[in-house]
Structures are given as structure tokens and as C-alpha cells.
């Protein structure tokens, strides 16, 4: 349906978005989109650079009369989150995103849309290609791997950019101007365990949690959305306590930056307790669904009989790991004492894999306060170490400290009010933006973040608002006209 998408206004923006959504561009698999962007820049006759980690920089001179304005870095990331519904047949490595229009929204069929951060990339491409848009000198920075480590931003060296202002196009509310963000750290708990042969008196069951909304583990962590890994662990804990449930394997969640939507496990229970077990599971499931009915009306917890698994977890390890997941903090840990309604520190228990004698639990802890981030990280570390896991902290990246005296903030605040008749919401966010990392090598650069309305990012419910994209595009064009002189 890309033909319909290409007819949307502004066509420059949507055409470029359709172009890049043909190209598979998952995090750490950006080779094809990097090649595409390099060819795009070179075909325009513009200076095009690929740095040593894979970031692409395209430089365009100022339009006539704008040569005395401050050079602007326009920045977005090339990669997108790959998530799909369990019943959707789709290969992210070979297929382009299948988009369609749903009223005022653009969506994808059963997968993430890639509006995060594809609309930002498309915006910059449209401006680079334009012949009639006024703008100062532009350094377009397309970073890689933002979604799974920010290694592109981390690997960008000083000296490649000369701009004094950075416009990060990665905010998802069109009335918001971002001036700060959270930092983060990955927490990975692992351990091995002995497998035991399943006793003859046990029978097999599969338990599946699905139908959750999922979403962005930073921007939506405060919304009370269900976490499939925590829900599954609650069910398993109850079954073990009352009916001798033994775990054979668990496969729950996906990417660290996505609130987990699904989890599936295979267990063995005592055959003599089968009827009572099924009754108890129905009661527990109904209780959980009742608790979450407002936020998760489509939650399903299904239980079905399967072949009895040949092997189950060592009992002691099972007891320890289910208790650790129960105890591990998930969701908001602390709200900001300085910025109203801002989540300061949180954790997402993103992935739980138990199979073939190995346990792996993956979390993402975020915070706008470095000491609080490490306090929660150490809390989780201690929780998992108490059950015999080895815990690794990796992928640590800094937050972005707000600068309320920013010159470009003042320009954009006035422009927004003039265009829309209301003040913008100037705020820090709980997501991880690249600004804090980029600022380590470019400390004097004045940075700001903004973008169109995107809902459900990092989930198959991701959607971009058409009317908001029009509003955002006008804002971008006016900002470029009003960039201060050097």
C-alpha cells in the first residue's frame, strides 16, 4: 500500500519514508540502509561520509542568503525495532514494512512501523533533496544501532561535525520540545542448571501469555501496562507452590527496550492434581485479567495439554529463579523530585529464556540521575546473584542534562506558539535519546529534540499520525528559517 502512503501530505516526507521502509533496517543489521543513504547523498552531489562505526554524514551548503546562520546538525537514527504479532508471518531480514492508512494514522500490518525513527530520517532526506526550502548549512547525521546499544552515537568521534545546533528528530509527541533524557544500562543475569528426567507420574502443559499491548519501555513504563514475563512468573509461582509444577522451558519477551507482550512456557505437573491445577490456573488467570482489565483488555492466559517434556529444571534452581523474578523490580522505581510527572528511574524485565540447562534474564534500567540508575542496577544485581546467577552490567550510556537557557529552545518555543496558538510542553523524557552521548564529544553543541505524534512505538501497534506529520513539517521549515546567525 505504499502508493497510498506516497500520496499523503507533505509528499516529500511520506515519499522518503516509503523509500526507506522498503529496506530491512533492524538494529545491528543496517548494512543495506547505510549503503542506501550513502548512495542517496552521492547522487545529490553532496559530501557524504561513512565513519568507522557506520554512521552516515551528509553535508549540504546553505541556501543563498543563509550563509551567515549557524550550521545545523539534523540527526536521526537509521535502525528500527523489529517486533511482530505471534500470528504474523513476516521476515524482517528480507521484507519491507507493509503499511496502510487507518483514518488519520499510518500503521503496519502486524509489525512495527518504523516511524521511530524513520520519520526523522525521511524529514532530513526531504530537506537534503529539496531545491526550494530555505535553510542554513546542514550536517545530516544518520546514526546506527540506537535501539539496542546506541553504539553509533558512542562511536561518533569529535571533529567530524562543525555545527553549533543539533536538532534531534526522535521525540514522539508533537506538542513537546525535548531538553533532556534518561541514561540507561543493560543488566543480564545468567546461570546454568542441571536438567532432570521428568518422573512418569507427571504430565505436560503449555502456558501462554499473549494479547498485551507492549510498547516503549521508557516512554510508556509508567502507564501500568502488563509485563508478560512478570505475569508468567506469577502463574508459575502459584502452580509450583500448590501443584508441584516443574518448568521445562520458558521463552518470554523480546528486545530490552520493548515492554514484553508474550511469554510461553512448557511445564510438568502431577497427573493426580490435573483437575485441581486447571481450576486453580483459571482462577489465577481471571484474577490477573481483572487486575489489568483497564490497561490490558485483550490479555489472554491460555493453558493447553502437550506431550510430557522429557527434562525439567533442577528443583532448587527453579525455586530460586522464580523467586528472583518475583522480587526483581519492574516498572517505575522513582519519580523525579525536580521535574513534575517525569519518571526518574525504572526497569524493564524484557527477556526471560530458560532452556537446555541455561537461564538468561535481560533487563534495561533507565534513569535521568546517574546515581539512582546504578542504585537500581545494583538492587537487581543483588536480587539475581542471590539465586546463583552471574550478573553483567553493559551498554551503559549517559543521560542528557536539560539546558533551560538554550538559545534554540527560545527560538523554537516562540515559533511553536506563533504557529499553533499555544505554548509547547518543554520537558525531559524517560526514553534514551542520543543527545547525551553525542554531547560527550560535542559539549558546546546546543541540542533539542522534537517530532510528530507516534503511538505504540516498539510494538506492532506502532502508528504515526498524518495530521501531526503535517503540523511537524511546517514547524521544521520555520525552524530552519529562524536559525540564529553565527
TrEMBL record:
GO cellular component: cytosol
Keywords: Cobalt, Hydrolase, Metal-binding, Metalloprotease, Protease, Zinc
Substrates-to-products reaction catalysed: Hydrolysis of dipeptides, preferentially hydrophobic dipeptides including prolyl amino acids
Record keyword Hydrolase present: yes
InterPro entries from the UniProt entry: Peptidase_M20, Peptidase_M20_dimer, Peptidase_M20C
Domain Peptidase M20 dimerisation: 207-293
Superkingdom field: Bacteria
Enzyme class: hydrolase
EC number of this enzyme: 3.4.13.18
Keyword set includes Acyltransferase: no
Name under which the protein is recorded: Cytosol non-specific dipeptidase
Family of this protein: Belongs to the peptidase M20C family.
Any one of the GO BP annotations: proteolysis
GO MF, any single term: metal ion binding
Gene3D superfamilies reported for this sequence: Zn peptidases
Cofactor(s) for this UniProt protein: Co(2+); Zn(2+)
Amino acid at each position: 500500500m505504499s502508493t497510498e502512503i506516497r500520496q499523503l501530505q507533505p509528499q516529500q516526507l511520506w515519499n522518503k519514508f516509503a523509500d526507506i521502509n522498503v529496506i530491512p533496517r533492524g538494529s545491528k543489521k543496517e548494512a543495506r540502509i547505510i549503503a542506501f543513504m550513502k548512495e542517496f547523498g552521492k547522487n545529490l552531489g553532496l559530501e557524504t561520509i561513512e565513519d568507522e562505526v557506520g554512521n552516515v554524514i551528509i553535508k549540504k551548503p546553505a541556501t543563498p542568503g543563509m550563509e551567515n546562520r549557524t550550521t545545523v546538525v539534523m540527526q536521526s537514527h537509521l535502525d528500527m525495532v523489529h517486533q511482530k504479532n505471534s500470528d504474523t508471518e513476516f521476515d524482517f531480514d528480507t521484507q519491507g514494512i507493509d503499511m496502510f492508512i487507518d483514518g488519520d494514522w499510518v500503521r503496519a500490518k502486524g509489525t512495527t512501523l518504523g516511524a521511530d525513527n524513520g520519520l526523522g530520517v525521511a524529514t532530513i532526506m526531504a530537506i537534503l533533496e529539496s531545491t526550494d526550502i530555505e535553510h542554513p548549512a546542514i550536517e545530516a547525521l544518520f546514526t546506527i544501532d540506537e535501539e539496542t546499544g546506541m553504539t553509533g552515537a558512542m562511536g561518533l568521534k569529535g571533529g567530524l561535525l562543525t555545527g553549533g545546533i543539533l536538532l534531534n528528530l526522535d521525540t514522539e509527541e508533537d506538542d513537546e520540545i525535548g531538553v533532556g533524557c534518561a541514561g540507561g544500562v543493560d543488566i543480564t543475569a545468567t546461570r546454568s542448571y542441571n536438567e532432570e528426567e521428568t518422573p512418569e507420574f507427571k504430565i505436560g502443559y503449555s502456558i501462554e501469555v499473549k494479547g498485551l499491548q507492549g510498547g516503549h519501555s521508557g516512554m510508556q513504563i509508567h502507564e501500568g501496562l502488563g509485563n508478560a514475563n512478570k505475569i508468567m512468573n506469577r502463574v508459575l509461582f502459584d502452580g509450583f507452590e500448590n501443584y508441584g509444577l516443574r518448568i521445562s522451558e520458558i521463552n518470554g519477551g523480546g528486545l530490552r527496550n520493548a515492554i514484553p507482550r508474550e511469554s510461553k512456557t512448557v511445564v510438568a505437573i502431577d497427573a493426580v492434581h490435573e483437575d485441581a491445577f486447571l481450576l486453580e490456573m483459571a482462577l489465577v488467570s481471571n484474577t490477573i485479567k481483572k487486575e489489568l482489565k483497564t490497561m490490558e483488555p485483550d490479555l489472554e492466559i491460555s493453558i493447553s495439554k502437550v506431550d510430557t517434556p522429557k527434562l525439567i529444571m533442577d528443583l532448587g534452581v527453579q525455586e530460586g529463579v522464580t523467586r528472583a523474578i518475583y522480587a526483581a523490580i519492574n516498572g517505575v522505581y522513582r519519580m523525579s523530585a525536580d521535574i513534575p510527572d517525569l519518571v526518574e528511574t525504572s526497569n524493564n524485565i524484557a527477556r526471560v529464556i530458560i532452556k537446555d540447562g541455561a537461564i538468561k534474564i535481560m533487563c534495561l534500567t533507565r534513569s535521568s540521575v546517574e546515581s539512582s540508575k546504578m542504585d537500581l542496577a545494583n538492587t537487581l544485581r543483588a536480587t539475581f546473584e542471590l539465586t546463583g546467577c552471574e550478573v553483567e552490567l553493559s551498554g551503559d550510556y549517559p543521560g542528557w542534562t536539560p539546558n533551560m537557557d538554550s538559545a534554540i529552545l527560545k527560538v523554537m518555543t516562540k515559533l511553536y506558539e506563533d504557529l499553533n496558538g499555544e505554548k509547547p510542553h518543554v520537558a525531559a523524557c524517560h526514553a534514551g535519546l542520543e543527545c547525551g552521548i553525542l554531547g560527550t564529544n560535542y559539549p558546546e553543541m546546543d541540542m533539542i529534540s522534537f517530532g510528530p505524534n507516534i503511538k505504540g512505538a516498539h510494538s506492532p501497534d506502532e502508528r504515526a499520525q498524518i495530521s501531526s506529520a503535517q503540523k511537524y513539517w511546517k514547524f521544521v521549515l520555520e525552524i530552519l528559517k529562524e536559525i540564529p546567525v553565527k
